[in-house]
Task: structure prediction
Amino acid sequence: MQRRVKALETVLAEKGYINPDALDKIVEAYEHRVGPHIGAKVVAHAWTNPDFKKALLADASQAVRALGVERTVGDHLIAVANTPETHNMIVCTLCSCYPWDLLGLPPVWYKSTAYRSRAVKEPRTVLADFNVTLPSDMKIRVWDSTAETRFMVVPQRPDGTDGWSEEQLAKLVTRDSMIGTGLPKAIDEVDT
Ligand code: FE
Result:
């Protein structure tokens, strides 16, 4: 696969269709700059700033832009917040649309047929596979991404985190908790 990619890259560069420097920049961005730590910062900010949370839920594209998050993937970003009554979960049933600019590279299972079909048919069982057990009366809402619209989950702020800084809080926010297939880390799981 690596050799095939290399061959394709060489041919496209020789023909002048792509600029190798630009490719290097994209690879560098996804290796070092773009990742779930960006989404975690957004969530931690929403946990500590009710006005930002309101703005995020009203128009996430605009709210994250105000934080300086450059978005290049998808036209609309929609943030959905978990509550004591409702748990949200994200899938792309058609393919693998994912908010790369906030969460980095999608996990392999996100693109699997099993996740894509089962997430809508039996979300509670899928969550159990991820070791997430929710109270039986908690509603689960599944959001289906499209090429234009990407979703992120704002998990509930864990109890016992009063007075924590945004940097400390961000350590609790996992990638899966922003897809809805996980919950934030327990407070004793992180070094603060
Ligand atoms: Fe997709």
In short: The longest strand covers residues 76-81. The pocket of fe (iii) ion is lined by residues 92, 94-97, 145 (CB under 6 Å). The first helix runs from residue 2 to 14. The radius of gyration is 18 Å.
